[in-house]
């Protein structure tokens, strides 16, 4: 009966009709996209680990969801309370899209399921009048066991209720799927089911999230499928017997930084972010230069431009084979290509190659590469934005750390139980300067790019 319940899940329906192939940055998805009845399914990598998984095709991201002055609430369980993907989202919106002036709060609560958020939604979240909310629930709702329809309906009902309550308060919603498991959680006393069955359960909850998003006309963020693919494929590519590459984290549930990059990517894409942060062009024929909105550029000598930027790219340094490095996670999904475009284009080069100096680093590119456009933060992990970016990110981390204390210790502690309104007023007086520190850290950056033709 257990196996029958799993076999009935959306992730395990038979595959019948062929559509088209797609690819991921870490492996080719060679199986076709599949249509079964009214459903279209995701393509799959050629690896036996994916044989039993047939996830529903995720809807494409819609247009830009965010407007100037939006108040973003990031809701979720202990994975959100880790303050990693939530921190990346807030830092990204602060430095990459400062013109939007988005105010962000995170509301992560360890061990929480959808029913828990539903109970505290009014007091903890809606009191701050959010205009956009991201939801990240499902890991605890899956109950660390194989899928069953009773629990699936329970999850659908409670997740839908959260969405509807937010919509009733004029909040735009992004429904996020759970991530994947890398191990059976150590706190699961009864070893109920295999790791594959746990992930099939999470995959089915992912498909339920798609159905909720479609039926409620809200956005969907696919966390499970890209994370599961990365867990399997990057684990084989980078992992060593004595040093595994664990996208889902050392405990198999709470991702390291690489896994959180996948989560941040999923939510930012679901919000319709286009990732076009900066575009700079140099024409070596006539020494003309141009820069996109948010930047000014001037030519100071042949091949050298000085730029003042009010928008930053995301900066990430570190090894690609370490799941605790943000840069490693950025290579598991098309983060640079879709969310972090900070591009230099050089035309009119008479030489086959040119050396590009940005800050203290120099890289050599072909004239073909430069004519097509070089994504600077991808090519230059350490760059002139490294220190300014770190200051903003540190300020974001400090504010989000206090937000956890504000909600968990104060609102739900003795002070909040005595007088929640007084507690909110007192704690907001502490949070306000922490939010201001983020804005103060976001200062214009002046940087220089020099292009030197070479043989």
TrEMBL record:
Look up the domain of life of the source. Bacteria
Quick one: signal sequence residues?
Answer: 1-19
Q: Which UniProt keywords apply?
A: Signal
SUPFAM superfamilies documented for this protein: SGNH hydrolase
Domain (SGNH hydrolase-type esterase) spans: 74-260
A single Pfam family it belongs to is Lipase_GDSL_2
**One GO MF term attached to the UniProt entry:** phosphatidylcholine lysophospholipase activity
Instruction: From the Swiss-Prot or TrEMBL record, give the protein name.
Output: SGNH hydrolase-type esterase domain-containing protein
- Tell me the organism: Rubripirellula reticaptiva
Lineage, uppermost ranks? Bacteria, Pseudomonadati, Planctomycetota, Planctomycetia, Pirellulales
């Amino acid at each position: 009966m257990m196996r029958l319940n799993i076999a009935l899940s959306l992730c395990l329906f038979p595959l019948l009709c062929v559509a088209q192939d797609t690819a991921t940055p870490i492996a080719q998805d060679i199986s076709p996209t599949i249509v079964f009845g009214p459903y279209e399914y995701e393509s799959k990598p050629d690896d036996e680990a994916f044989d039993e998984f047939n996830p529903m095709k995720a809807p494409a991201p819609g247009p830009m969801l965010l407007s100037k002055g939006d108040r973003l609430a990031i809701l979720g369980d202990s994975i959100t309370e880790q303050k990693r993907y939530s921190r990346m989202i807030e830092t990204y919106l602060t430095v990459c899209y400062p013109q939007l002036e988005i105010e962000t709060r995170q509301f992560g609560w360890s061990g929480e399921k959808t029913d828990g958020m539903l109970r505290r939604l009014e007091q903890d979240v809606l009191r701050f009048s959010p205009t956009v909310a991201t939801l990240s629930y499902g890991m605890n709702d899956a109950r660390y066991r194989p899928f069953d329809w009773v629990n699936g309906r329970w999850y659908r009902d409670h997740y839908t209720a959260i969405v509807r309550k937010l919509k009733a308060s004029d909040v735009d919603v992004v429904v996020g799927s759970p991530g994947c498991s890398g191990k059976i959680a150590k706190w699961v006393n009864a070893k109920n089911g295999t790791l594959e069955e746990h992930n099939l359960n999470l995959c089915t909850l992912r498909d339920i999230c798609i159905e909720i998003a479609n039926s409620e006309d809200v956005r969907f963020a696919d966390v499970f499928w890209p994370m599961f693919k990365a867990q399997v494929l990057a684990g084989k590519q980078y992992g060593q017997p004595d040093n595994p590459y664990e996208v889902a984290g050392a405990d198999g549930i709470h991702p390291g930084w690489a896994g959180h990059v996948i989560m941040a990517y999923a939510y930012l894409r679901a919000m319709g972010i286009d990732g076009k942060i900066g575009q700079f062009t140099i024409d070596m024929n006539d020494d003309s230069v141009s820069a996109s909105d948010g930047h000014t550029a001037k030519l100071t000598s042949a091949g050298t431009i000085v730029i003042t930027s009010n928008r930053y790219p995301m900066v990430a340094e570190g090894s690609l084979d370490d799941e605790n490095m943000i840069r490693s996670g950025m290579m598991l999904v098309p983060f640079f290509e879709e969310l972090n475009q900070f591009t230099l284009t050089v035309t009119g080069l008479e030489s086959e190659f040119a050396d590009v100096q940005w800050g203290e680093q120099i890289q050599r590119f072909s004239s073909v590469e430069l004519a097509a456009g070089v994504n600077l933060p991808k090519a230059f992990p350490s760059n002139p934005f490294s220190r300014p970016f770190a200051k903003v990110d540190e300020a974001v981390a400090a504010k989000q750390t206090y937000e956890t204390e504000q909600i968990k210790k104060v609102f739900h502690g003795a002070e909040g139980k005595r007088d929640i309104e007084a507690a909110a007023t007192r704690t907001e007086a502490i949070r306000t300067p922490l939010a201001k520190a983020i804005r103060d850290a976001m200062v214009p950056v002046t940087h220089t790019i020099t292009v030197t033709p070479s043989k």
